[in-house]
Structures are given as C-alpha cells and as structure tokens.
Amino acid sequence: MQFKDLEWKDVISENMTVCSHCMVNLCGWIKIEFKINREPREDKYYLYCFGKGSVRRLKPEKYDSLESAKNAAYRIYSNEMLRIKKAVDCLVAEDCY
Hints:
By secondary structure, the chain is of the alpha+beta class. Helices cover 31% and strands 37% of the residues. The chain is built from one helix and five strands. It has a five-stranded antiparallel beta sheet with strand order 1-2-3-4-5, with helices on one face. The longest helix has 30 residues, at 66-95. It is elongated, with a radius of gyration of 16 Å. The relative contact order is 0.17.
C-alpha cells in the first residue's frame, strides 16, 4: 500500500539544505511531525520524529544523506498509516456483525 508523498519544507543556506521539516495532520486527530537537521561537524543528518506512540523517537536517528533521512521518515509514516488502517478495518468489521 502506498500513501501520499510527504511535503517537505527545506531551509537552504550556502546551497546546502541545513534543515527540513514535514508535518502530517489527519483530520485533526493524528499529527506526525518530522524534522531533519544537518550536523556540519559530523556531516550527518539527524531525523527527529514527533507524534504519539511508536512514531515518537526519544533520540534522533543519524543518516549519511538528506535523502536517506527522508526515506526513513516515509517508512515511519507508512508503518503508522498501516497500523491505523488495520485498526479502522477491525472496527468496521466488528460493526458489520
């Protein structure tokens, strides 16, 4: 199952993306936020995830490129949407009986 593409807002300085931000809000009920910050000393990108449950990460995850950090964010988003879809399908199936 494929979900919509995440819409990122990039902050660019000296032709390099230093920060990227994405927020998903589903009908005001579910809010997922991703932030990617570049650490120039390590030349790594840190992915921060905010939301409820398994989405929230207490420690940022490190990636070698901005693209790999965005791909990881999309995987987290997709997994959360699949979890929500399963819960909704279960509720709908129970109501049908």
